[in-house]
Design goal:
The structure holds 2 protein chains of 2 kinds. By secondary structure, chain A is α+β, with helices and mostly antiparallel strands. Chain A has 2 domains: 203 residues, no CATH class; 163 residues, no CATH class. Chain A has a 6-stranded mixed sheet with strand order 4-5-9-6-8-7. Chain A is elongated, with a radius of gyration of 31 Å. The two termini of chain A are 38 Å apart. Chain B is an alpha/beta fold. Chain B is built from 7 helices and 10 strands. In chain B, strands 6-7-8-3-9-10 form a 6-stranded mixed sheet, sandwiched between helices. A 4-stranded antiparallel sheet of chain B has the order 2-1-4-5, with helices on one face.
């Protein structure tokens, strides 16, 4: 082996032996540091996975949704409004949608009712989101009754349960036929809740939104990218809130790690003197200590990160989930698809390994540059 | 081998607590012989050893090793000379606790980048010579004073230095162990090594193993 590599091996061997000699201090330090990385990495991984999930789920949603506004409030789309849009270049499909909210006093939760074409859901049947089905204890073929806002009782047969893959968005969803929807909500004929437009070319979306705003001044076009951005902002905001709440604890841990790393015991100073006296250069001592810093912080980073990965993707981020996923009566049960952002991890690694290694170096540099004759006195 | 001319050493120079430990030392140390520095505490023996052993630089004057002036060399070069030329046996042994005797012995050779197997082999030979083979794996804090000193001797020899420097080597040993050390000392000269030690132990300075005794008092040489 090359002498330089051999020398590094010797330094690492000595460092490991030195770490093992101060077990209690180093295990405590490693645990505190790994915990810090665990908290930060859990937050980063969970919010990143949620952002990714939101992106996946919204990928199939329409590019533009048009709502009609009256006095600054969302109002129904009147008959003929769809035709007013006319033919817009780039729009592949336009469709009036019917949806609304229903409060179910049985579980004190709000459901989202949405009409689907008759070929998808037969009249008298409904399709349910998995969370809702669990909350009401419903299975395929069961009958369920809802009392409408007009006071009439409607009974539906559960024809299908929506795939658990879509549970994040479809947790509280009830799909029913257009005819049933209009009857249940007393929805006026020919009216819609909003209009969904499919646009093939993503470059055209903004132009189409601008044309719509011109043609229908009382409308509000909502772009899919805006919805996505809103979700991202919500997750960013929640991540920020958790970080703020935890800032005190994180700072305390960071200070503890810094203090432990930057303090040299009298025994360590004596050892540095001996090493210098027996022929180690200042650089060798610093390199040895640098290896120590890198080994401790890298182990803490890997330990914390792997624990965070398991926590988020195998245990559903049990610790942070209640705050990060939002508040609801019906909590969807979903498994996050592991999504790791390389840059985010590199940043976390940099900010955990670099400051610690630097904290180790400063006192060592001071101790290592003292005269080696100190051990003789 | 080693020449000192007008060597002076001051501590805390320019400060109110300035202290001159050496006041112009002229001394020549011959190769292959044992030279002892004798004098009371505070006479400057240890300071002189640190200057010769490249652990510190003189405030003024010259230290020459094999004719080369080493008194003004930067620390990096001094370290290299210290590692290659000198082996140290300290009064308190200065072993690193928590490490085995073997690990302590090979420590000075780490910066050379020599393979570990080679270092372990060399250490085992030294342990055999010093009758310490059975204690190689033991942690140094479990060893007796005599065993600790032999570990310190083996450590001083691992880089095969030409000069052995020993500061009060028998100060922490009983008579039997001190005699054992003197026997080891004779082995050094037989191997052609130069030995420089400090002591005020009559057992050492009056021993036949010591070829020359240099007296010191108040930072100056006096007749031995």
């Amino acid at each position: 082996m090359h002498p330089w590599l051999e020398k590094q091996r010797h330094l690492i061997d000595f460092t490991l032996a030195a770490l093992a000699r101060r077990k209690a201090k180093n295990i405590g330090l490693l645990a505190a540091y790994a915990l810090l990385v665990f908290v930060l990495a859990s937050l980063a991984l969970f919010t990143q996975a949620l952002r990714k999930e939101a992106g996946f789920v919204l990928a199939a949603s329409p590019e533009v949704i048009v709502q009609r506004m009256v006095a600054g409030r969302h109002d129904l789309i009147p008959p003929g409004y769809l035709d007013k849009i006319g033919r817009l270049r780039g729009v592949q499909k336009k469709e009036g949608r019917l949806w609304g909210y229903y409060y179910d006093p049985v579980v004190s939760a709000n459901y989202t009712f949405m009409a689907r074409p008759a070929e998808e859901v037969a009249s008298g049947s409904i399709m349910l989101g998995a969370t809702l089905a669990r909350a009401r204890g419903l299975q395929l073929g069961n009958l369920i009754s809802f009392r409408s806002y007009a006071g009439k009782l409607f009974s539906f047969k559960v024809a299908a349960l929506l795939s658990p893959d879509s549970e994040l968005l479809a947790a509280d969803l009830v799909l029913l036929s257009e005819e049933d929807f209009r009857a249940f909500f007393d929805y006026p004929a020919g009216h819609y809740t909003d209009i969904a437009l499919s646009v093939a070319n993503p470059q055209e979306v903004r132009n189409i939104a601008a044309k719509l705003a011109n043609a229908l001044p009382d409308s509000r076009p909502i772009l899919r990218e805006e919805v996505l951005r809103t979700y991202q902002s919500i997750f960013d905001w929640r991540e920020g809130i958790v970080l703020t709440v935890l800032a005190g604890a994180i700072l305390a841990f960071a200070l503890l790690a810094w203090d432990k790393a930057s303090g040299l015991s009298a025994e360590e100073k004596r050892e540095i003197g001996i090493l210098k006296a027996i022929g180690w250069e200042t650089g060798d001592v610093i390199r040895m200590k640098l290896w120590e810093g890198v080994l401790v912080s890298l182990s803490a980073f890997l330990l914390g990160f792997v624990a965070a990965y398991i926590h988020v993707f195998y245990f559903g981020a049990a610790i942070f989930k209640p705050v990060l996923q939002g508040w609801a009566v019906l909590y969807p049960s979903f498994t996050l698809v592991p999504a790791v952002d390389g840059l985010q991890i590199a940043t976390l690694a940099f900010f955990t390994i670099f400051p610690y290694s630097a904290a180790v170096l400063v006192p060592i540099w001071r101790a290592a540059t003292t005269d080696p004759d100190a051990v003789m006195r | 081998m080693i020449q000192l001319s007008a060597v002076k050493k001051a501590f805390n120079q320019g400060r109110p607590n300035e202290y001159w430990a050496l006041h112009g030392i002229d001394l020549a140390i011959e190769a292959g012989r044992v030279t002892a520095l004798r004098g009371p505490s505070g006479s400057g023996k240890t300071t002189l050893l640190t200057l010769i052993g490249c652990l510190a630089r003189p405030t003024s004057g010259r230290v020459r090793l094999r004719g080369e002036d080493i008194s003004g060399l930067p620390e990096r070069f001094l370290t290299e000379i210290r590692r290659q030329t000198f082996g140290f046996i300290f009064q308190q042994f200065n072993l690193i606790k928590g490490l085995s005797a073997l690990e302590n012995v090979i420590l000075p050779a780490f910066p050379t980048g020599r393979p570990r197997a080679e270092l372990v082999e060399k250490a085992e030979i030294l342990f055999d010579q010093l009758k310490l083979g059975h204690r190689a794996a033991a942690k140094v804090e479990w060893l007796s004073g005599g065993e600790q000193q032999r570990v310190a001797i083996a450590r001083a020899l691992i880089n095969d230095p030409a000069v052995i420097i020993a500061d009060e080597p028998t100060a922490n040993l009983d008579t039997a162990l001190a005699r054992e050390f003197m026997a080891i000392l004779e082995g050094f000269t037989a191997a052609g090594k130069t030995v420089l030690l400090t002591s005020h132990d009559p057992l050492v300075v009056e021993s036949s193993a010591v070829h020359r005794v240099v007296g010191m008092r108040d930072g100056r040489l006096v007749d031995a």
